[in-house]
Amino acid sequence: MSRNRIKIICNPQTDTLSYQFQNEQRVWMTVSRFSALAERRYTETNIRQSAPAILDIINTVYNPGNRGTDIFFEGPDKDYDYLCKAVNERFSGENISCVQQTIRVAIGGKPGVGKTTLIEALAQKQGVHYTVEPQTGWKHYKSKSTPVEWFELEDIDFGVENIRKAEHTVGVLAEQGLSLFLYCFRSASVGRAEIGLIQHIRDQHPEISLSGILTNAVSTDDTVTAGKLSRMTGIRVLPVIAKDQKTRDGVIKAFGLEDVLRVIFGEE
Predict the structure, then answer these.
(1) Distance from C-alpha of 190 to C-alpha of 106, rounded to nearest angstrom
(2) Residue 13 predicted with pLDDT over 60
(3) More confident site: 254 or 210
(4) 70-94 per-residue burial string, b: 16 or more CB within 10 A, e: under 16
(5) Which of 123, 172, 213, 245 could be a cystine partner for 128, CB 3.0 to 4.6 Å?
(6) Cα Rg of the chain, angstroms
(7) Average pLDDT, stretch 222-229?
């Protein structure tokens, strides 16, 4: 019988935790709202405050008969070290292991859709400074102050060759433990190739979470547009303005970044 797997995702900016489990198809699923781990005392907290109680629940629910449970932790080094210490001190005989993981997020879309702007706005909101390393097929954003790494894919333009190149890139990143793929839209116009790419990722890489971003959503109609895109693509699409926008009627304030961060940290 295979070991159970559960993921603890730590958001150091909001001091919150979220939890996922891996089903028989090896797809990560958010724990049920009826799970003890979904209670506020285990989500609106941090590892240093609640590790023993969290581990008690994991051992009872996900490690029946000492079957074996692997805990995958996505968060700061100091919190991971504390979790491992708690496991070793209190559950050393319970066949529980800890593995630290990075939250690896890929972002793609057509030219000029605002991928870089979104990454920079999220980094600024979190007070994070990234170093950027160009790679073949993507740009890699890394920082020691956050568990989140970004992979900004080269522009995905029209044409079978470009779509296949994007599919190959996602496959390479999947082998490196990609957690989430965000596809950016500029408008309600979406082609078959884009839908095909999203479907390919969903079918070939079920372990990767998928969400969409409607960038530069400057009007109230864009909430409706995001809903239409969600129905067309089969993934949730969030309306976002990454930075304040000046118009003749005034300034439209940035919004939606908190929603993106909740998706990244597994809180939605």
Answers:
(1) 19
(2) yes
(3) 210
(4) bbbbbbbeebbebbbebbeeebeee
(5) 123
(6) 19
(7) 87
Query: Residue 114 pLDDT > 80, yes or no?
Result: yes
Higher pLDDT: 255 or 171? It is 171
Per-residue DSSP letters for 166-233?
HHHHHHHHHHTT--EEEEEESSS---HHHHHHHHHHHHH-TTSEEEEEE-S--STHHHHHHHHHHHHH
Q: At 212, list the tokens.
A: 């969409």
Using one digit for the tens of pLDDT, what is the confidence trace for 22-34?
888 778 889 999 9
Q: How far is CA 176 from CA 41, 66, 149, 170, in A?
A: 33, 30, 12, 10
Q: What is the pLDDT of residue 250?
A: 79
Confidence of residue 161 (pLDDT cuts 50, 70, 90): confident
Tokens encoding 248: 């003749």
